[in-house]
Amino acid sequence: MNNLRCILIGIFLLFGLWSCTSPNDIVDYTEDLAVTDPEPGSTASFSEEKNVYFGDLHVHTKHSFDAYIFGTTATPDDAYEYAKGNAIQHPLGYDMQLREPLDFYAVTDHGFLLGSVEGWADPNNGRAGTEPFHNLNAPENLNQESIAARSQLFQNYVRNIAQYSNIWTRTVAYLTGDTARGSTIYDVDIHRTAWKDVIKSAQRHNDPGNFTTFVAYEYTASTTRSANTQGASALGCLLTGNGCNFEGSPPLENANLHRNVIYKGNKFTVEPFTRLKSVNPENLWSWMDDLRDNGVDTIAIPHNSNGSNGQMFEMENWEGLPISTQYAEFRMRNEPLVEMTQVKGTSETHPILSPNDEWADFEIMWQRVGNSAYSRPFGSYVRQAYLDGLGMEEEGRGNPYKFGMVGASDTHTGAI
């Protein structure tokens, strides 16, 4: 099989069909910065003892597939202008504006098919334009009457993706080791252009000492153990498509394992690591470790553990082995924070886990993210994770849940 792969790669090189840029290549944007002083400044009210800053680390714009389907045309630039106190438009046409500007903001569009739906909606895009999305957000189509049609389009989203997978694209995916290319609706140019827009926008609006931006994206993994296909046969994947992680998990079995990945500094990968590479968060952490070894520091912030069906804070690793000290260090190195509350519910605790706490049902969401299936409380909430982590630490296995907490919006309009 390795010989076959080498032969096919040679053919691709011969005919110029091979991209020389790896998704994990790192680009240094330092020279592109508009500021002359690379050192961050301090605010006039800075205190070494206590500082309170307000912002949001979970914001979606038009580059996210779901946001665009529901009418969002706000760009990352628009989102940052909003955070700085300027007005932007809601998809239904009214203005949104803060009473006071924020101190920090991060656009975290879904890395999964980043920017693709906007490309599909362009009828002039011969490579990726797909009829169900054509002119989706043209002015004449942005109205309340379109909501039902948009909802149906969103529900059929995975099926629309699956229709376009073929033997050619699966061959490219196999040869490149990049499963994203297993569907013809994945357009490398659109994806990378959108990601570069996210990067450049954050850099344009970063104002040290006054307003801080972060280059970021959402790793949108949703799966159950039965839906994990990381051990799939490459040959079976190539020939049949069976066992490949091109189309995601069965919708009714989704267990939310989403994370927002936040970059530090001015070096970024050519593409984000997405669920099209792996739905196993441990593979995301390994990727982050590799980046760190190459001078690119990142952290991941899990969110909506309440919809994880018990999989966010487990007592074992992905393969079902007991958590060890090595695992605890591995996870905490990459995930020092958890997004405990946002628009899709609060993940602090649950009445089943805290029956004597009268506030245990505060803004909880009972079902999983994206469907009405019940989400198992055990392993889904922060308070229990803290207790489980302390218990494992007492047993000498380390504490993988010694994290801090943040709240965010998960807005899909660019504005909170």
Short description, anyone?
The chain is an alpha/beta fold and 416 residues long.
Describe how the helices and strands are arranged.
Elements: H1 2-14, E1 26-28, E2 55-59, H2 65-69, H3 76-83, E3 88-89, E4 95-96, E5 104-107, H4 116-121, H5 147-155, H6 157-162, H7 167-176, H8 188-205, E6 212-219, H9 234-240, E7 259-264, E8 267-269, H10 281-293, E9 297-302, H11 325-334, E10 337-342, E11 345-346, H12 382-394, E12 404-407
Parallel strand pairs: 2-5, 5-6, 10-12
Antiparallel strand pairs: 1-8, 3-4, 6-7, 7-9, 10-11
What would your notes on this structure say?
The protein is of the alpha/beta class. It has one domain (2-139, 188-228, 248-407). Helix content is 28%, strand content 12%. The protein has helices at residues 2-14, 65-69, 76-83, 116-121, 147-155, 157-162, 167-176, 188-205, 234-240, 281-293, 325-334, 382-394; strands at residues 26-28, 55-59, 88-89, 95-96, 104-107, 212-219, 259-264, 267-269, 297-302, 337-342, 345-346, 404-407. The strands form 4 sheets. It has a 5-stranded mixed sheet. A 3-stranded mixed sheet has the order 11-10-12, with no helix packed on it. It has a two-stranded antiparallel sheet with strand order 1-8. It is globular. The N and C termini lie far apart (51 Å). Residues 11-19, 33-38 and 226-252 have low confidence and may be disordered.
